[in-house]
Amino acid sequence: MDATLYVASGNAGKLRDFAVAARVFQFDVVPLPGLRDIPAPAEDGLTFENNARLKAVYYSGFAPDLLVIGDDSGLEVDALHGEPGVRSARFAEDAGFAVDGVTDVDARNNLYLMQRLGSQGGASKAARYRCVIAAARNREILTTAEGSVEGEILRKPRGSGGFGYDPLFYLPALGKTMAEIDLEQKQLLSHRGKAFAALLEKMRHGI
Is 172 helix (H, G, I), strand (E, B) or coil? Predict the structure, then answer.
């Protein structure tokens, strides 16, 4: 089994999660060398798996013989018929939603989500995070793995940890949001942590 996985992502939050996952699962996970100099591909897939495969194949072409992983993840809200889904990172941008003085992408997405759900009245706020990770070498997909975690969307954000929708994503069993738990616990419970664990399990059996 390869000793190192190279992550094809420049997202600081994801890289932090993967770094913690490396400690939790005792595996080497590092950013792909020279990633900043590689033009990003268009993430135009209709599913998380489409985009994860696209990124893994694309970036592995810039790293001969290395095992490169690409991931795509997002939030699915039942009351919004699965939105924002694969557009989670661009939810507010796609809608042209803006708030004076708010430039942070995550903050804008969270505000837009709360606005959309506010118009739903008493509709259920059930939601899930989903993640798919694809592993590729020399532009060939070797395997994929996925993970998900069920939760609810709060009306107000709580916690200062995590990123994305974490301050709104509530875990009823813990009584906390994703932004209120430590990173090690998050890797064991989160969609990304579960997908990563499933990927490593496949790798241990040979890919």
Answer: coil
167 token code pair: 């301050």
- Tokens at residue 144, please? 């994929």
Q: Which residues contact 42 (CB under 8 A, 6 or more apart)?
A: none
- Cα–Cα distances (Å) from 58 to 21, 52, 55, 67, 154, in that order, read 23, 10, 5, 12, 37
Work out whether the CA dihedral 54, 57, 60, 66 comes out positive or negative. Answer: positive
pTM to 2 decimal places: 0.91
Q: Are strands 169-171 and 140-153 parallel, antiparallel or unpaired?
A: antiparallel
What distance in Å separates the CA atoms of residue 19 and residue 178, rounded to the nearest whole number?
17
Residue 76: closest CA among 49, 112, 113: 113
Q: Any idea which fold 4-204 has?
A: Maf protein (3.90.950)
Which tokens belong to 83?
């939105």
CA-wise closest residue to 53 among 21, 8, 90: 8
- Give catalytic residues, as residue numbers: 72
Please give the DSSP secondary-structure letter assigned to residue 40: P
Residue 139: half-sphere exposure toward Cβ, Cα within 13 Å: 3
- Dig out the tokens for 104 from the structure: 């942070």
* pLDDT tens figures, 87-140: 999 999 999 999 999 999 999 999 999 999 987 766 679 999 999 999 999 999
